[in-house]
Amino acid sequence: MDLETIHELLQNDLVDAGFEIHSFLISWYNSVVDPLFRLSNYDNDAVAFLIISTPNMFEKTFLRYIANEHKDLTRDPIDCCVKEKMQSVIEKISDHEIDVLFDYDLWPTRRPKIIMQTVGHVSGAAYFYSREHLTNDPFPKDRNMMGVCLHPKYGGWFALRSVLVFKTLKCPSLPRVLPTDVLNGDETLIIDVLQRFNDCWQDGTYRNVIPVMEMYSTLQQSYFQTKPIDRLVWLENLRRMDNEKV
Q1: Distance of alpha carbon 11 from alpha carbon 8, whole angstroms
Q2: Could you report the per-residue pLDDT of 137-183, keeping only the tens digit for each?
Q3: Phi, psi values for residue 217, rounded to 5°
Q4: C-alpha pair distances (Å), 65 with each of 15, 68, 97
Q5: 23 phi and psi, to 5 degrees?
Q6: CA angle, corner 233, sides to 232 and 238, nearest 5?
Q7: What span, in angstroms and rounded, lies between the C-alpha atoms of 12 and 9?
Q8: Cα–Cα distance measured from residue 120 to residue 144, given in angstroms and rounded to the nearest whole number
Q9: Taking the model in full, what pTM does it have?
Q10: pLDDT tens digits, residue range 53-97?
Q11: Dist CA 44 CA 46 (whole Å)
Q12: CB 158 within 8 A of CB 52
């Protein structure tokens, strides 16, 4: 199965389920991350695909997943839902060896297996903003400031979920798509979004620093605003209400 066919298959399986697919080369990622985070087990010309969830993944895929009463909701159900979806896709591409990396994957040392925000940037999916972009950095030098990705359509209303590495699929001439700088290099706006993300990420205002085409539904926001320890009850109540409608 060639690159074009694989890309078409991923698009057909995942876009209607509320995901986006962005291809990149391992070399693009390895060239910009700290050596500790490089994907050294793969050829630099190997092709990988970043999978992101868009706002409608919640309704199109997740709610259908949790409606199945045989699904175990005690483990993180979003992660389990995405994992199941990725597994169902790669089963259709049996002629390639594929490694699947998730945003929550860690080494025994607790170090992330992959820096998803960097993948978001090098794949062209979303622009990664950090204090390194600032000529006049107003933040304390000893403060650890987290960077943030913004999507050109969804702002902060999306998530970097998974990377599919095709270990034997090589394409050194893969066209590179640059991410859209939605803040146009404006340092005032970059400082503002970094401040919002680091100081008050819970209020979600960093997600709306640009006009967005779509955002999380009220139901989805309610789910993510619920403390993780209380989400099982939230989901069980939703299941019960859905059953009562039948």
Answers
A1: 5
A2: 999 999 999 999 999 999 999 999 999 999 999 999 999 999 999 99
A3: -65, 165
A4: 16, 6, 27
A5: -85, 155
A6: 100
A7: 5
A8: 21
A9: 0.94
A10: 999 999 999 999 999 988 988 889 999 999 999 999 999 998 999
A11: 6
A12: yes
